[in-house]
């Protein structure tokens, strides 16, 4: 993105248009970003399915890691740091055959060196939890 296209909204830097191909196919659309909350959604389609016709758990794990990393990094950016995941434990609670899911990430603990974030993925139509994950992140200096 060049400076002429700079978008000052906090979610702009996380837009799929500027993401890696891996994150584009995962499909997390970030709608809200702060150091204490990240919210978004994914439109799950056949591109996300296993050979057995259900959504691949890696999609959920990627969403959990991404949402937690975005929020944790926002929380420490004023200190010249960003956050990197050091452990991701994602539980798959029920199978899904697609549709929209909502992703919500909030911190459980935010320390000087590490953070712990909880991310919940729910089916938009039913409100039922599909997956839930916790990510421990390390706060590290931004690269020079």
Give a short summary of the structure.
This protein has 144 residues and is α+β, with helices and mostly antiparallel strands. The chain has two helices and six strands, in the order αββαββββ.
Tell me about the largest β-sheet. Answer: 6 strands, antiparallel
**Low-pLDDT segments:** 1-8
β content, as a range? 35-45%
Mean pLDDT over the residues? 91
Helix run count = 2
Biggest sheet strand order reads 1-2-4-5-6-3
Q: Would you tell me the structural class of the helices and strands?
A: alpha+beta
Number of strands: 6
Rg of Cα set: 15 Å
H/E topology pattern: HEEHEEEE
* Shape, per Cα inertia axes: globular
Helical residue percent band: 10-25%
First-to-last CA distance: 19 Å
How would you describe what is shown here?
The chain is of the alpha+beta class and 144 residues long. It has two helices and six strands; from the N terminus they run αββαββββ. The chain has helices at 21-26, 57-76, and strands spanning 29-34, 37-44, 81-92, 99-110, 114-123, 129-141. A six-stranded antiparallel sheet has the order 1-2-4-5-6-3, covered by helices on one side. A hairpin with a 3-residue loop joins β4 and β5. The longest helix has 20 residues, at 57-76. It is globular, with a radius of gyration of 15 Å.
């Amino acid at each position: 993105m060049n400076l002429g296209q700079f978008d000052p909204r906090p979610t702009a830097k996380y837009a799929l248009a500027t993401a890696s191909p891996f994150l584009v196919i995962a499909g997390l659309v970030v709608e809200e970003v702060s150091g204490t909350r990240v919210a978004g959604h994914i439109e799950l389609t056949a591109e996300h399915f296993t050979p057995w016709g259900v959504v691949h758990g890696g999609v959920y794990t990627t969403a959990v890691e991404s949402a937690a990393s975005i929020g944790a990094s926002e929380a420490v950016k004023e200190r010249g740091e960003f956050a990197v995941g050091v452990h991701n434990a994602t539980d798959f609670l029920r199978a899904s055959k697609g549709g929209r899911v909502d992703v919500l990430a909030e911190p459980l603990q935010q320390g000087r060196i590490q953070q712990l974030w909880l991310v919940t993925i729910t089916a938009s139509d039913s409100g039922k939890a599909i997956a839930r994950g916790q990510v421990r992140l390390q706060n590290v200096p931004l690269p020079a």
